[in-house]
Sequence to fold (338 residues):
Amino acid sequence: MLKFGIFDHLDSDGRPLGALLASRLRLLELIEREGYDGYHLAEHHSTPLGMASSPSVFLAAAIARTQRIRLGPLVYVLPLYHPLRLYEEICMLDHLSGGRLMVGVGRGGALLEHQRFGIDPAAAPAMYHEAFAVLMRAFESEVLDFDGRFYRYKDYVVQAKPVQRPHPPIWYGAPNAEAIGWAAPRSINVVSLGPSARAQAISERYVQEWRALGRNIDTLPMIGITRHIVVAETDAEAQRIATTAYAHWREAMDWIWRRAGAAFTLQDIYPADFASLAAIGHGIAGSPTTVRDYVARLQQEAGINYLLCQMVFGDMSDTDAARSLTLFSREVMPAFAG
Fold:
């Protein structure tokens, strides 16, 4: 069985911010109606790649517009947060959603953004690990004392606990299979970018670690991969939409590197145009049949049980996005339900 979620940078499409946010909330209502399992929102700063610079604020609005779908950041960029303030936000969102929150955590993928906040990129990994430890301690404790390199707290009385105990499902962007030794004992859901072979190695390692822990394979966490996907009635129409929208999105993706005069570090994952993206298997644009065949191959090659579909991006119109989401849910997803 393969489950499906939506991954969203909420990148700028050229409209005023209010119009963009309102549009995405309307599409999110459609995403829920069409049966997607989750909605995952990226966090970026000082770049057109991400206009939801406070994921918690957008997710609070999304929670009010939905009833079933699970929602969460992918990821909260932990070095940019006071971890106990973030803990309190997580508890509030989990209660507002009735226990539908997912919590993605990471150091952040574009360390140039950290510099904009005055944070030394070299310190970001250590800050991430320490902030994560604070979060986990708060979930477990009634009173928290913490004496770290970056964070020090004394007699923090934990007034709130989340609905989901001990905490909402945790998500992590796994860079390689070696990261699974940390993720598996904690039952952390993982997602990867890039080649199917990397996802396959991550999946195989997760299964191996899970069995070594003596756990039932039926309870295996989500092992996902992200892909740009556009569906239309014909291959030609889908490729036309994807080509234009991806060009706009790709310009936003490498904007912060260009601004800093630095080399773009994700060229091998996100090449310059959609045809090149599709050629290396990192995206697909086509009719429902074409896309269904692609997803079947991807599931077999990558060993995933969750596909994070990036289906609204660039300057794609709301009409094209809604049609793509609906065709995918009704003519692609049912083939993987059993």
